[in-house]
């Protein structure tokens, strides 16, 4: 047990350092704290001559619950609410159970094993449910927790049904079982630590990728990322035969907002419009802050009539928005130009944007706060 504790201490130091260097990643913090609590419980168990075993059992299982909470945060991508209430309730419940079982080492071991098996199942379930999970890391995570749960399931069966373990009163009497679990525990701790750090590195890579691809104010694609995604979308449309539409949206008289209310208010307006645009777009559509107060929306599997309906809906929703950024309240309008993207088009993305820009120019010329299409329709030309 002391060897296991020292091994865990080495691993937990690595996780604590990683958590200290990355305070914005709650999962790694709970994984480090969880292993720290397991270390404490192992040390208490090694001192079972003076400290009751029920205390060390409660501490170790509480460490497992903290590991599960870290996996929960990893799945959510942020901290999970209700931590103190949940972990407090779990601590009281399992401490009470171990206290009443302190006179029976056998049933204490069975209960502890059952808790570990349940936590192993929860750990696998949390990571499997992560969106955009890294397949290799997910397999490795599931593998170590399956192995860990299987060893404790074997332990539970032996202490439950094998007559040799029916009357054990010390860990030494169950050495044949405990030795294998201790050995597996050493392997598990090192493997778990490495996978946690790999998850952290993957999380940081994803964060850097997101920062490189998205506009920091609006969280929409930046121009470079949009161009890459749009070119791929055009290629996909050629193969699938799907038509699309490209919308160019420009906030009317946005310079006046900055001049009259300040750049902070202008940023608030841009962020709010990006939210309106995101809510209007479908999952397969591409949204982009093209530059300044200009935005792009590439619609897939959409005809011009549907695009006009969507453009009008965006225009109307935005016209009704009120932005509180000091006094007075800010209102704004948007002009929208859109152009078809035929499935067999050989036009470049730049040429498609130019067509949408021509339609946008017509919308501006007609008094702003309207939608125009390319090629221009008679209705678009009317004052």
TrEMBL record:
Its main location: membrane. GO terms for cellular component: plasma membrane. Pfam families: GGDEF. Its EC number is 2.7.7.65. One of its GO terms (molecular function) is diguanylate cyclase activity. It is an enzyme of class 2 (transferase). The chain crosses the membrane at residues 51-71, 83-101, 107-125, 137-159, 179-201. It catalyses: 2 GTP = 3',3'-c-di-GMP + 2 diphosphate. InterPro entries: Diguanylate_Cyclase, GGDEF_dom, Nucleotide_cyclase, Rev_trsase/Diguanyl_cyclase. Residues 242-376 form the GGDEF domain. Its cofactor is Mg(2+). The keyword Nucleotide-binding does not apply. It is found in: Cell inner membrane. Keywords: Membrane, Transmembrane, Transmembrane helix. This is diguanylate cyclase. It comes from Halopseudomonas oceani.
């Amino acid at each position: 047990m002391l060897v296991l504790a020292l091994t865990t201490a080495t691993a937990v130091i690595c996780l604590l350092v990683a958590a200290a260097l990355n305070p914005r990643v709650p999962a790694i913090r709970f994984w480090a704290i969880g292993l720290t609590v397991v270390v404490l419980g192992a040390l208490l168990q090694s001192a079972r001559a003076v400290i009751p075993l029920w205390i060390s059992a409660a501490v170790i299982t509480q460490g497992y619950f903290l590991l599960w909470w870290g996996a929960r945060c990893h799945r959510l991508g942020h901290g999970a609410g209700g931590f103190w209430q949940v972990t407090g309730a779990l601590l009281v419940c399992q401490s009470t159970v171990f206290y009443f079982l302190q006179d029976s080492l056998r049933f204490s071991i069975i209960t502890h094993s059952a808790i570990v098996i349940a936590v192993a199942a929860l750990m696998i379930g949390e990571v499997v449910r992560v969106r955009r999970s890294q397949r290799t890391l997910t397999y490795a995570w599931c593998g170590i927790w399956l192995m860990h749960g299987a060893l404790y399931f074997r332990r539970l069966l032996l202490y439950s049904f094998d007559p040799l373990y029916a009357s054990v009163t010390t860990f030494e009497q169950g050495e044949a079982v405990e030795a294998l679990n201790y050995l597996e525990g050493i392997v598990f701790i090192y493997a778990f630590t490495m996978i946690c750090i790999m998850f952290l590195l993957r999380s940081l890579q994803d964060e850097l990728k997101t920062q490189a691809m998205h506009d920091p104010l609006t969280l929409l694609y930046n121009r470079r990322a949009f161009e890459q995604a749009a070119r791929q979308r055009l290629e996909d449309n050629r193969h699938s035969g799907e038509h699309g539409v490209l919308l160019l949206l420009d906030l009317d008289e946005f310079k006046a907002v900055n001049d009259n209310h300040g750049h902070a208010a202008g940023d608030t307006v841009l962020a709010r419009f990006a939210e309106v645009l995101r809510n209007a777009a479908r999952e397969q559509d591409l949204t982009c802050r093209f530059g300044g107060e200009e935005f792009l929306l590439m619609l897939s599997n959409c005809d011009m009539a549907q695009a006009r309906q969507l453009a009008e809906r965006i225009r109307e929703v935005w016209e009704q928005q009120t932005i509180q950024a000091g006094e007075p309240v800010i209102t704004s309008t948007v002009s929208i130009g859109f152009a078809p993207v035929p499935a067999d088009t050989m036009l470049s993305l730049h040429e498609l944007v130019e067509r949408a820009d021509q339609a946008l120019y017509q919308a501006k010329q007609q008094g702003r706060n309207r939608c125009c299409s390319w090629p221009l329709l008679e209705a678009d030309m009317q004052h």
